[in-house]
Amino acid sequence: QVQLVESGGGLVQPGGSLRLSCAASGRIFSINAMGWYRQAPGKQRELVAAITGGGSTNYADSMKGRFTISRDNAKNTVYLQMNSLKPEDTAVYYCNAAIRTISNWRLSADYWGQGTQVTVSS
Questions:
Q1: CB 29 within 8 A of CB 102
Q2: Residue 45 and which of 92, 105, 113, 118 are 20 to 30 A apart at CA?
Q3: In this predicted model, what pLDDT tens digit does every residue of 76-88 receive, in sequence order?
Q4: Is residue 67 within 8 Å of residue 50, measured between CB atoms?
């Protein structure tokens, strides 16, 4: 019923920038929090940044000052602007959203995108 589709990943040199996008589609009643997580090889998935429906943001300490999360509620889309990228930012980045569907609007459920690879390397 609901899909999250990420885009914008790729290969970038250290110090470079990338902008990730994640669009939610389907029978959506409302979207509350949206966020980005990442998982590097051999490591657990970790929170990168999150944003509430009202626009309040939260960042992991290592991303503060380098990454910016934003959203366009009219487009059901969340963005992640990543600047000053480091090799340790290499990971698969996943979009997450808390969504109420039209058929079950009383219940908010977590949905995940398929992931987009970000590789930072010279």
A1: yes
A2: 105
A3: 999 999 999 999 9
A4: no
